Amino acid sequence: xxxxxxxxxxxxxxxxxxxxxxxxxxxxxxxxxxxxxxxxxxxxxxxxxxxxxxxxxxxxxxxxxxxxxxxxxxxxxxxxxxxxxxxxxxxxxxxxxxxxxxxxxxxxxxxxxxxxxxxxxxxxxxxxxxxxxxxxxxxxxxxxxxxxxxxxxxxxxxxxxxxxxxxxxxxxxxxxxxxxxxxxxxxxxxxxxxxxxxxxxxxxxxxxxxxxxxxxxxxxxxxxxxxxxxxxxxxxxxxxxxxxxxxxxxxxxxxxxxxxxxxxxxxxxxxxxxxxxxxxxxxxxxxxxxxxxxxxxxxxx
Amino acid sequence: xxxxxxxxxxxxxxxxxxxxxxxxxxxxxxxxxxxxxxxxxxxxxxxxxxxxxxxxxxxxxxxxxxxxxxxxxxxxxxxxxxxxxxxxxxxxxxxxxxxxxxxxxxxxxxxxxxxxxxxxxxxxxxxxxxxxxxxxxxxxxxxxxxxxxxxxxxxxxxxxxxxxxxxxxxxxxxxxxxxxxxxxxxxxxxxxxxxxxxxxxxxxxxxxxxxxxxxxxxxxxxxxxxxxxxxxxxxxxxxxxxxxxxxxxxxxxxxxxxxxxxxxxxxxxxxxxxxxxxxxxxxxxx
Lengths: 301, 286
Description:
Chain A: Residues 2-230 form the ABC transporter domain. Chain A: Its EC number is 3.6.3.-. Chain A: This is Copper ABC transporter ATP-binding protein. The complex is a heterodimer. Chain A is α/β, with parallel strands linked by helices. Chain A folds into 2 domains: 2-218, 3-Layer(aba) Sandwich (Rossmann fold); 224-291, Alpha-Beta Plaits, CATH 3.30.70.240. Helix content of chain A is 35%, strand content 29%. The radius of gyration of chain A is 24 Å and the shape is globular. The longest helix of chain B has 35 residues, at 110-144. The two termini of chain B are 30 Å apart. In chain B, 42% of the residues are buried. Chain A binds chain B through residues 45, 48-52, 71-72, 74-75, 77, 79, 81-87, 89-90, 94, 97-104, 106, 142, 152, and chain B through 1-4, 15-16, 18-20, 23, 27, 30-31, 97-99, 101-109, 284-286.
């Protein structure tokens, strides 16, 4: 749908984005993570056509976007910026009417979504009386006003309580079921990204260090799997199982409170499991956990 | 779409531009800014009209020339200040609210964004000037006839134009700084410069370069200050050259014609606004 080809952006002498290439496929939810100052915002602004790259190209449907094309392309984009506070003197409904006029959208496009996000009574109130969570819900509503094909969310759950967070993702899932909506989710909430997105891009110092599914990322980094075995009285200190694990290449094997913990290379996973299951009378249960996005993130940083 | 429909502004304007203009205007209308300024201008005009000659021991309605001369000397301070404060925060405030990126990511051009804001604020500023000065001006119509009232209305239009000039300057200051506090500080400096410092400096230059500065050079220097252009425009309208002579003891050259002064005023409206547009594009869109 949208392809970044060797996109570089300089702010004076500072390189905010360095030779970034990646592609968004139609209908996917793509997570963009990275610490403050890593270049996420620059990338989002380029994606939204707010700023132009110093070098490189943005392709849509295989064709490079020219300056004159951006205005039309923006009609397909919904954007939910971080911490937008809107206008205290306008009602929620008037705010949506304003942005519908600006974006060429319509409130009828989001009637069903709006009913879930904010009640009529709340929409009739001035935004100045809204809580942070209500403003964020209004923010999501305005982002959907033009029935976008690409939705760019910058820290969308900032200020939302768990119910609001769940609702936001339920609404996104609902919209995505109806149409092939591509979503870019930029956030610091790694656990959230891990749960929701199909692919992740990790930024560091303006460089897109890695992109892919979580599985691809941890395999690429050679991060170990974590095995936790709850041993029984037949192997009280987990000595026997420890020995087997060592032979299969496991490292950092520790025992505490009846639990044996080890890290094992992903390529040894099946052999290791076969060996362990061969000693199934020596343990009560086991858990095999793949590295989290947080571990991948810190593996890169 | 209702936001645009409510605007009731001319339909040739693109919908986003109308929506932006309407928002700015309705904000000032709802906050009673327009009403308060209209009342202030009305009271100011009535006071000047009736009590303007109190110093000479006479209290009665004065003629148009004296009223315009007195109002001009007051308006040169009020309208620039109002316009500068009105438009000074226009971009910085959107940035602080994080709504600026929303506009920039919408399918509107930066020119539509700037122009929409400008038109909305221009209407907000022009309406109090038109109503606040015109309503008491009807007294001039009844007391002195249509001829004087016509000249008075030229003063009113000049005052609207002065507001538009400083609104344009305020847009330029608004895009020059990211922080609202810096915008406010710079706005005060701009106001001081054009309303007080420039003329003082000019008088100083005249004294220091006695017989060196030609009348034409002086005129050019006067045209560089929109406040002086406004003053001269009003005084030429009412034929009160002697008031102008208080500032510049020279023959009024032929170049000082209303058409030239109007052209200069238009330049003062357009150039800062265009400069603001280019600075805005450079700062926020590149």
